[in-house]
Amino acid sequence: MTVGTGGQVPAWCTNAIRRCEQALGTAQGSADRLALVRSLVRLHGGRRDLAALPIFLNEAERFLLGRFGLALTHEGRALRIVTDEDRFGLDGLAQAMILDERPRQVFEPAAPDAVLLRLTRHGSYRTAAQKAAVRALLTQPGGSGLMVSMPTGAGKSLLFQVAACFERERTPGACALVIIPTIALALDHERTLSAMKGLEGSRALTGSMSAAETQGIINGFRRGEVPVLLTSPEKALSPQLLRHLEEVAAPHAVEYGLEGRLTHVFVDEAHIIESWGRNFRPDFQRLPSVLARLRQVNPMLRAVLLSATLTDAARKVLRDSWKQEGDWLEVDARTARYEHDIVVGKYRSSREREPALDHVIDHAPRPVIVYTTTIHAADELYDRLRTDRGYRRVALFTGNTGDEERRRVISGWADDAYDIVVATSAFGMGIDKADVRSVIHACLPEGPARWYQEIGRAARDGGQALAACLFTDNQHVSDVREARGIATKGWLTREVAQSRWHGLRETATMLDWRNGARVMLVNLNAFRKGQRRKKGDWTRDWNMALLILMQRARLIDVLSSVPEDAPDEFHWEIAILDPRLLENDDDGIWDSICALRDAEQSDAREALDAFINAMRHPRQTCITQDAFELIETRAHAPACGHCPACWAQGIQPPRMLRSDGLEQRWACQQAPHAVLPPGIVLLSPDDPYFEDGFPDLVRSLVRAGVEQMVVPPALAQGAARLMADAGARMGFVMDAGQWRHSVRLAEVVTAIFLPHEEDEAARILDRLSEEFGHCSPVPVLLVAQPERLWRGRRLDQTVSTHAPYDQSMLDILMESEITGR
Predict the structure, then answer these.
(1) Do domains 126-332 and 494-585 have the same CATH topology?
(2) Average pLDDT over residues 462-481
(3) Of 160, 182, 180, 149, residue with least CA distance to 428
């Protein structure tokens, strides 16, 4: 095989080879064995001696070689890849099957902070956005909200891991609540957290647990023994759990031994609050009421929303619902992913697609996920792969999969017991298996966001991956029509919405007044006028959809939970924000509701139409670029270099990607306590070249309260380690090369090391002047010799109104602080 930069085989290739060889040791079926052999031969450059294979191919398997794109060569002593990809109407498959060992995750890494080195095994941040998100998290004011958008695989989970560990350093019972959209994701996070030092007790709370097991986890959380509690929106909203969350959120223990202290509420995959909460699982949009109720107990509770993609519609819903009374900050990477080779196939019918789908599944690099839209389609494909195609190392994961089976599939997937998972979106978000090599859609996702999220299950290790979409397109029953139906359904007509509200209002119980708003208890089983008496989920779901729409229109607020004295669980407490709702009819009210509905429907339709057009004409424009810019409208992504349009036009992939995020910071709430005066202070170091004396200087700065350093790139790693060893609580380190025009420093006590090179020093001084001027609410130490020149004048005459300090003065100041003199 060929090798990567510097003559080394890339780690992702080495790991993929090892994975294939180990899987071949346990694979029994011929289809599984030959698909793995094909992946292995491909990883070795398209040719492999039979003697080098870890298994012996029997006669029946040699007969099947052609099905898997393999042929004997060298007088029957070797295998080679046969290229015949174009006969199935799959645009780009021939190019995608060519092995490319080069790293595809070309994000510019960021220097570590002391807190990262102290609390994790990571030696650096994956991107500047991840670094920015951790910085924002650790400086987040009490009672505020933080929203983070970073690419799949960029390490969003690090935030709740760091939050729990960081808070538990000072408060042993500190804990975080993480609200997760799917059971699969919750179980996957539980598995990951259980292997991390200090977070071993983290647990996922799922609906299928026994009452005793559920209560045991809740009691452990109340005692502070569960650092991270993962649960669903429905669980978080249940009166039983919510009462205990209030106990844990309280600043002081309500009973002896209950040492749990809730510090953060996280919502993972937060974009689905807008997309799912509109008509599917509307409890997602009731989640802000949980935060509001917990903040009644503890106003300092912090909220953090995490997502890989955020449309403008999702941003607005999240901002409106979660900002509440506190400060708000958004950290966005605005960076697409470029690991995937994009393949597209369009067919008139499922029957016409079937041989192409079989071909792609047989040839796709392992492991592979095959997505369908419906449970029925997933069931059919799974059965066909087992009965007709001979696969055994295949699993099924849909919304109908039982909880025990989900655990088994997730565990088996992590342990390489399966090479194929056939799934619906239930096996979507956050399943963190780094070495997935292929994602195949045997459908058309109902929008660019779903497609982008699901291909993001592959190539989390930064290596090459296949993303194939095979969809049907005709005027009758097709994937295109199904996608349009899903994307635009769930909007009530004006007449039905009004009659449903009348039914809810007429059966409601008027409660009290709160903050100037009338509070009502509405019965979700209420019938609309003229409706056939049809109890159950159908009526409740539509009533919930209406109430959520009214909440998005800011006409009502869905309050924290069902009161304990409510007749049953199907009652919501709502606050009437617009008193016109209590009147019989008001056209203005319904005009505003319908305007919102129409705008949402139009946005969904436009995004899907643009996505369909890109998929129908894959050689016209870059699909990755189009999809990402449809999702993140404020971003500008370069073309990917790995799709049919880019290959046809000779467009090369980007060499390096910068991510945003470090331009964001919280407004300074109050000046931190420090022995140093606010503003810029010039510090003369004993060792102006930052060589042998650098460790002593860093230790002295940390003792003086410095929590952030800007250092030359070569010193960044060492500075973070020295700050960690010296006991810095956060120990932020900024590589001076990344302190660019838009990048801003956190407002904590800071030391800026002036490099010896004059050009770079001038840039740093210009940047210092640009960001701080001559004043700063926090102390900023410029570490440089006073006699150095800037703009023709000495530093001690230009940068500060304070007299310069010698390095020895730091210890004197600390001694004075300790003794109180």
Answers:
(1) no
(2) 94
(3) 182
CATH class entry, domain 340-487+602-649: alpha beta
Q: Give the C-alpha distances (Å, rounded to integers) separating 95 from 21, 73, 642, 647.
A: 25, 22, 9, 8
Q: What's the rounded Cα separation, in Å, for the pair 227 and 201?
A: 6
Confidence class of residue 431 from pLDDT cuts 50, 70 and 90? Answer: low
676-731 confidence digits (pLDDT tens): 888 899 999 999 999 999 999 999 999 999 999 999 999 999 999 999 999 999 99
Comparing 390-399, 415-424, 452-461, 770-779, the range with the smallest average pLDDT is: 770-779
CATH of region 126-332:
3.40.50.300
Tokens in use for 504? 């809810």
Domain ranges of the chain: 5-82, 126-332, 340-487+602-649, 494-585, 679-819
Closest C-alpha to 219, from 191, 259, 190, 166: 259
Distance separating alpha carbons of residues 301 and 306, to the nearest angstrom: 17
pLDDT in tens, 201-255: 999 998 778 889 999 999 999 999 999 999 988 888 887 888 899 999 998 877 7
Positive or negative: CA dihedral 178, 181, 186, 192? negative
**CA angle in degrees (0–180, nearest 5) for 18-24-29:** 155
The span from the CA of 475 to the CA of 72, in Å, is 44
The DSSP secondary-structure symbol of 201 reads T
Confidence of residue 539 (pLDDT cuts 50, 70, 90): confident
CA distance 183 to 185: 5
The residue type found at 36 is L
Q: Tokens for 792, please give them.
A: 């023709």
Quote the pLDDT of residue 3.
Answer: 41
Please name the helix (run of DSSP H) or strand (run of DSSP E) that holds residue 459, with its range, or none.
none
Does the pLDDT value for residue 336 go beyond 80? yes
What is the pTM assigned to this prediction?
Answer: 0.80
Query: Region 359-378: what's the mean pLDDT?
Result: 96
Omega within 30 of 0 (cis) for the link into 688: no
Q: What architecture does CATH give domain 679-819? A: 3-Layer(aba) Sandwich (3.40)
Counting Cβ atoms within 10 Å, is residue 516 exposed (0-12), middle (13-18) or buried (19+)?
Answer: exposed
Please tell me the distance from the alpha carbon of residue 674 to that of residue 779, in angstroms, as a whole number: 8
Exposure string (b/e) for 411-448, b if CB count within 10 Å is 16 or more?
Answer: eebbebebbbbbbbbbbbbbbbbebbbbbbbbbbbbbb
The matching CATH number, chosen from 1.10.10, 2.60.120, 1.10.3470, 1.20.120, for 494-585 is 1.10.10
Tell me how far CA of residue 188 lies from CA of 29, 45, 301, in angstroms: 28, 34, 26
Asked whether the beta carbons of 412 and 418 are under 8 A apart, the reply is yes
| DSSP 3-state of 276 | coil
